[in-house]
Specification:
By secondary structure, the chain is α+β, with helices and mostly antiparallel strands. Helix 5 runs parallel beside helix 8 and helix 5 packs across helix 10. Helix content is 34%, strand content 19%. GO terms for molecular function: thymidylate synthase activity.
């Protein structure tokens, strides 16, 4: 059987026995390439319709390029090419791999093509597995503009991670309540942590960054000098051996997972130095595209800025690699609203004083300039 555009043709000898017709196959392939037909295949014995003699098939080779057989397919190809050109033009206008188009395109792809799945929270998601988006950090900062993102929350949470804290109340006291639900009495009791103080999240991100391998007791214990200080090792390696390919910080500790109120979603990051620039790649096992990912993008971009500052480098790129990238079903309509909004220029980031140590950064050291986002969009957090 030959598939020519939308026509499937089975070729028989006059004796009605199937013949391979190798030369005819080659001619059809050459013809398809000249005429732009995307499908020319040979499948012996699979079709019983449109049975014609070889001479009839040969006459098909002489059909004009504007034949109705493939006009529709050519039109579809042209429409696809036009859409790709328009997408490329949008990317070029916004800058090379440097605006939030990648994020929005991924959200749209998940909503349109993601598989429907259940999830831990019982909310339900549409999800895809494996995605990557890049953000340029040169002279701009990737804080989404199609909705207002909670900058104070991003900044205070990162400083809280760097401190090594696991006490959600420290964030709440500063007006940042993003960990309140996971540290609530009801949530901890549900997980079986009935003896744990409310707000004690267990050995989560900050503990793993600064005390990997230490024995976790509670959120009040002083762990100074215990475990591996991964964050400081990253900084020391960037300073002493910037070409190292093992500049990695990992929050995923299988031994401590049962003690965590929430296992790490952003699990591992790697840093890369080239031409005086520091870049970061994050692997995120679970990516809540509506609420979590905008935070994660800005948080690791900020961490890259901070480490670049104290090591005498310039920020390069942030590469965001996602495992289970999902949209909660109750976020679909809010995200559709966001997709309709015009992208605006990213803001810039200023570090207002010279800081020598990662532990010396304070919230007042950072200034976001020229941030002009669309209004915030309310989405419910799934717990």
């Amino acid at each position: 059987m030959f598939c020519l555009g939308d026509i499937s043709i089975k070729v028989f000898e006059k004796s009605t026995k199937l013949a391979p017709f190798p030369k005819l196959t080659r001619d059809l392939e050459m013809c398809s390439q000249k005429r732009g037909v995307s499908c020319i295949t040979f499948h012996p014995g699979r079709c019983t319709s449109n049975i014609v003699a070889p001479e009839t098939v040969i006459s098909l080779l002489q059909m004009p390029a504007t034949s109705d057989i493939h006009t529709g397919e050519m039109q579809r190809d042209a429409a696809c090419d036009n859409a790709e050109k328009q997408a490329a033009e949008r990317r070029n206008k916004s800058g090379f791999l440097c605006d939030e188009r990648g994020y929005l395109d991924l959200v749209e792809h998940i909503i349109q093509n993601g598989g429907r799945k259940g999830d831990r929270t019982g909310t339900g998601v549409v999800s895809v597995f494996g995605a990557q988006v890049r953000y340029c950090l040169r002279d701009q900062f990737p804080l989404l503009t199609t909705k207002r993102v909670f900058w104070k929350g991003i900044l205070e949470e990162l400083l809280w991670f760097i401190k090594g804290s696991t006490n959600a109340k420290e964030l709440s006291d500063k007006g940042v309540r993003i960990w309140d639900a996971n540290g609530s009495r009801a949530f901890l009791d549900k997980l079986g942590f009935t003896d744990r103080e409310e707000g004690d999240l267990g050995p989560v991100y900050g503990f793993q960054w600064r005390h990997f391998g230490a024995e976790y007791k509670d959120m009040h214990t002083d762990y100074t000098g215990q475990g591996v200080d991964q964050l400081q090792k990253v900084i020391d390696t960037i300073r002493k051996n910037p070409e190292d390919r093992r500049i990695i910080m990992c929050a995923w500790n299988p031994k401590d997972l049962p003690l965590m109120a929430l296992p790490p979603c952003h699990a591992l990051c790697q840093f890369y130095v080239c031409d005086g620039e520091l870049s970061c790649q994050l692997y995120q096992r679970s990516a809540d595209m509506g609420l979590g990912v905008p935070f994660n993008i800005a948080s690791y971009a900020l961490l890259t800025y901070m480490i670049a500052h104290i090591t005498g480098l310039k920020p390069g790129d942030f590469v965001h690699t996602l495992g289970d990238a999902h949209v909660y079903v109750n976020h679909i309509e809010p995200l559709k609203e966001q997709l309709l909004r015009e992208i605006r220029s990213f803001p810039t980031m200023k570090i207002k004083r010279k800081v020598e140590s990662i532990d010396d950064f304070q919230a007042d050291d950072f200034e976001i300039c020229d941030y002009n986002p669309h209004p915030a969009i309310k989405m419910q957090m799934a717990v």
